[in-house]
Design a protein that fits this description.
By secondary structure, the protein is an alpha+beta fold. It folds into 2 domains: about 350 residues, no CATH class; about 260 residues, Methyl-accepting chemotaxis protein (Helix Hairpins). Helices cover about 75% and strands about 10% of the residues. The strands form 2 sheets. It has a 6-stranded antiparallel sheet with strand order 2-1-3-8-5-6, with no helix packed on it. A 3-stranded antiparallel sheet has the order 7-4-9. A hairpin with a 2-residue loop joins strand 5 and strand 6. Helix 1 runs antiparallel to helix 2, helix 2 packs antiparallel against helix 4 and helix 9 packs antiparallel against helix 10. The radius of gyration is 72 Å and the shape is elongated.
């Protein structure tokens, strides 16, 4: 029975009696109470957060009496016969209440409540307060049957959506369009849970009111993010950046509120009012985006927009009474979800039809190519036989290559050892060549200094030869002078002899003169004495001059011999200088050759090192080649086996007639 008449209200809170029960709960009269239409917010609320409602219960002789109330905002207590018979949430007159449920609730009443009034003590710090949607009374089994009957459509729709969510989640886990299917799973799962919980079937069947409230909130918070991600992935194909930002913001808000539901249900129920405020414009934005995509020719968007539009209308109608903006007019939400489910099924069916058409087309093409496949099978059988022969030849060739490469690898190892010995010898040769080059440089320098010394010696010998020649000429000139002096001495001797003869004659004449000739005799004696002394002196001078002349001739002869020796020495020095110059040239050539040898040895050493590196690389490449040849041999063996299998399979297929028309 609908409770539509006799409702009364009273703002504020009742004082408590001695037994702790509010005094207003024990009053039966109408004093202080005012009438109010059923399921309406009483006038004159102001700043009041406490409301008392008095609802008359008819006397219809029900056995197990039950009161069915729609959404009660927010926490409340029910009193019957002056006793508290039901509590939902926590009332805190000094602060904020804690809401326990947002769903329709069935409250068992004592049989004595028939024909009396039931009092509701309600607290709400939000905009809405009181009872909305419905108020009924009757036998418990009748009430439960009506709840199940009225909520069955929503429960079935929710179950169907939950099944769709599980299927989408399973397909997403298989890696096929993960993000779109995951979004569909989130939206369908949240919608299914919300519908199933709001149908009140779960709450009546399992009596888990608090858990159902939490699950209801979680389902509601999953709807908008899941729907937004599905639109972004399936309709928009991740093109609009601002829409991604919007969906991301909604997702973060929903995640925060979901955590809040698990931590503090009272605070979550208060925040839920804000959720509904931004949910309506967000949902309308989704509708506009889908409609624009449908207008631009997106077929899926056109199918989706029909169901989404109807869902939006139903949700807006359902939210208006909760916000206090419109009276309660019944349940419409599940019809919207059914419409959206139908649109999703339509999209899936359309894509299934496309796949089916594609399969039919491929089947026709497959039928058209069956003959080609038969020919191919026959050719494959023949080719497989040839492939077996080729694989056998390739295998034999691979084995020969393996043997040859192994030998080459061994030869390279021996060559590498030989090159290492050559490198050691080259290093020793290079060191000795550098020492020899240094010695040759020193010899070349000494040869140049010796050549310079010989040149200076030649110059000095030539000067000495000239001086000795000049000295011999002067000695010969002195010899000539000496001979002239000897001639003069002979003349002086002749004069002395004549003076002696004259002195003899004068003595004779003095003797003849006697006394008068005595003085003349003395003079003649003195003259004769002087003449004798002159003869003796000239004789002595002659002897000296002859000795001097003989010495000068010896000196001249010696000078001539010295000049000859100087000439011989000069010629010998010239020959020595020529030989030294030739030796210097030979040393210079040898030095150049030694330098070239040293450079060649250095290059040989570097080349030997490069050869060693190259041999090592070749050895590595040979090892890789050996591995590749072995792999080729294994592949040849596999190809041979595969060819035999192909030949057998083709023969079986042809014999079985599976490829026949």
């Amino acid at each position: 029975m609908e409770l539509r008449e006799g409702w009364r209200y009273r703002w504020g809170d009742s004082p408590l009696g001695p037994d702790g029960v509010p005094l207003w709960a024990q009053e039966n009269g109408a004093e202080g109470w005012q009438s109010v239409p059923a399921l309406q917010v009483p006038p004159g609320r102001g700043d009041h957060t406490m409301l008392w409602l008095s609802i008359p219960i008819p006397n219809a002789d029900w056995g197990d009496l039950a009161l069915l109330l729609g959404s009660v905002s927010n926490a409340f207590e029910i009193y019957a016969g002056g006793k508290r018979v039901h509590v939902s949430g926590i009332i805190n007159p000094e602060g904020h209440e804690t809401r326990q449920s947002i769903l329709t609730q069935m409250i068992p009443l004592p049989a004595s409540a028939q024909g009396t009034r039931v009092l509701l003590r309600i607290q709400s710090t939000t905009k809405t307060i009181g009872v909305s949607q419905l108020a009924r009374v009757g036998a418990q089994h009748q009430v439960m049957a009506r709840i199940v009957r009225e909520g069955l459509a929503a429960f079935v729709t929710g179950t169907l959506l939950f099944i769709i969510a599980l299927v989408a989640l399973g397909m997403a886990l298989q890696g096929r369009q993960r993000r779109m299917l995951a979004a569909l799973a989130v939206f369908a799962g949240g919608s299914g849970v919300l519908l199933a919980c709001m149908s009140n079937v779960l709450a009546l069947a399992w009596d888990v009111e608090g858990s159902v409230a939490q699950v209801t909130f979680l389902g509601a918070y999953c709807m908008l993010p899941g729907l937004g991600w599905f639109i972004r992935e399936s309709i928009l194909e991740n093109r609009l950046r601002w829409f991604r930002v919007l969906v991301g913001s909604v997702s973060l808000s929903a995640a925060f509120q979901a955590v809040l539901v698990l931590v503090d249900l009272r605070l979550a129920s208060q925040v839920f009012q804000l959720t509904m405020l931004y949910s309506i414009p967000c949902l309308l934005t989704y509708v506009v985006v889908v409609l624009v995509a449908a207008y631009r020719g997106n077929v899926d968007a056109r199918i989706f927009s029909a169901g989404l539009g109807l869902l939006t209308v139903c949700l807006v109608i359902a939210m208006l009474p909760m916000l206090g903006w419109a009276p309660v007019q019944g349940a419409f939400a599940h019809w919207g979800f059914m419409a959206l489910t139908a649109s999703l099924v339509g999209i899936v069916a359309r894509r299934f039809i496309q796949v089916a058409r594609s399969l039919v087309s491929h089947a026709r093409q497959l039928d058209a190519r069956r003959k080609d496949v038969q020919d191919l099978a026959k050719g494959m059988g023949r080719g497989a036989g040839e492939l077996v022969s080729v694989a056998q030849g390739l295998r034999a060739s691979s084995e020969e290559q393996t043997t040859g490469v192994s030998r080459q690898t061994l030869a390279l190892k021996e060559l590498d050892q030989t090159v290492q010995e050559i490198r050691q010898g080259s290093a020793v040769t290079d060191e000795k060549a550098r020492v020899l080059a240094q010695s040759v440089v020193e010899a070349e320098e000494a040869g140049r200094e010796g050549g310079a010394a010989i040149a200076r010696t030649l110059t000095n010998l030539e000067g000495i030869g000239v001086e000795v020649t000049e000295m011999a000429q002067r000695i010969l000139a002195l010899d000539a002078r000496t001979r002239e002096i000897a001639g003069i001495v002979d003349t002086v001797k002749g004069l002395a002899d004549q003076s002696n003869m004259l002195a003899v004659n004068a003595a004779i004449e003095a003797a003849r003169s006697g006394e008068h000739g005595r003085g003349f005799a003395v003079v003649s004696r003195e003259v004769r004495s002087l003449a004798d002394q002159s003869v003796v002196a000239t004789q002595r001078i002659r002897e000296v001059l002859e000795g001097v002349s003989a010495d000068m001739r010896d000196a001249a002869k010696t000078s001539e011999q010295g000049v000859h020796r100087v000439k011989v020495s000069l010629e010998a020095v010239r020959i020595s200088g020529t030989q030294l110059q030739r030796l210097t040239g030979i040393i210079s050539d040898t030095s150049n050759s030694v330098r070239q040898i040293s450079a060649a040895v250095s290059q040989q050493n570097a080349g030997t090192a490069q050869i060693a590196v190259a041999i090592q690389d070749m050895s590595s490449q040979m090892q890789k080649t050996l591995n590749a040849v072995q792999a080729t041999r294994n592949v040849a063996r596999s190809v041979q086996t595969l060819a035999e299998d192909m030949s057998g399979s083709a023969q079986k297929a042809l014999e079985s007639g599976a490829l026949s028309a």
